[in-house]
Amino acid sequence: MISMLKNLSYASILLILFAIVSACVSGPHFYLQYGNEYRELDLEKLLADNPLAPGDNIKVANLGRSASASQHVVQIRDREILHVHKIHDATVTMLRGQGYLVLDKKRINLKAGDVIHIPRGVAHQYVNTSGEPTVALAVYAPAFDGKDTHPVNLP
Predict the structure, then answer these.
(1) What is the pLDDT of residue 78?
(2) Residue 90 and residue 123: Cα distance in Å, rounded?
(3) Count of CB atoms situated within 10 Å of the CB of 11
(4) Domains in the chain, CATH or no CATH each
(5) Which of 77, 100, 110, 153 minimizes the number of CB atoms within 10 Å of its CB?
(6) What confidence category does residue 21 fall into, taking pLDDT thresholds of 50, 70 and 90?
(7) DSSP label at 141?
(8) For residue 73, which of 62, 57, 87 has the smallest C-alpha distance?
(9) How many helices (H) and strands (E) does the chain have?
């Protein structure tokens, strides 16, 4: 073992150590405060507790809400229907996967790490282009009750 390590460069050893440490760290984490209640949630555990079933297209896990906003982790296997939220603004952070958002007839390519704001009243549709479900954090203002999703028919 020691003779093998002698043949590795310093950079290779650092890369191996980084890979080992990275594999042990879960993330991202969500830190949420609602009134006096504080919660820390791990994405891996949240997804394990709220799996997207094989026949399902969309799964929403509600993280929490205040009077002014709500937070949700959304998993999308294929696509959303074209729709509009009449009284809610949404800010979406892509956590995993890639795809595109049609936002008011404009196509926007998205990947993990991207953030997009969707104003109320603007028609939009997300389409997943990867082989795995997309995972995103959606923050709605005001707090979303699940009833303000209105399909849009194309002319």
Answers:
(1) 98
(2) 12
(3) 8
(4) 2-151 (2.60.120.10)
(5) 153
(6) very low
(7) E
(8) 62
(9) 3, 12
127-to-23, 41, 155 alpha-carbon distances in Å = 29, 27, 20
Beta strands in 5-155 (DSSP E): 29-34, 37-42, 58-65, 70-76, 83-84, 89-96, 98-103, 106-111, 115-118, 124-128, 134-141, 150-151
CA 96 to chain centre: 6
Whether residue 118 contacts residue 45, with contact meaning beta carbons closer than 8 Å, is answered with no
Q: What phi, psi does 89 have (nearest 5°)?
A: -90, 150
Tell whether the model's pLDDT for residue 1 goes beyond 70.
no
Asked if 82 and 152 count as a contact pair (C-beta separation under 8 A), the reply is yes
**Whether the predicted model's global pTM rises above the 0.85 cut:** no
Share of the chain above pLDDT 90, in %: 73
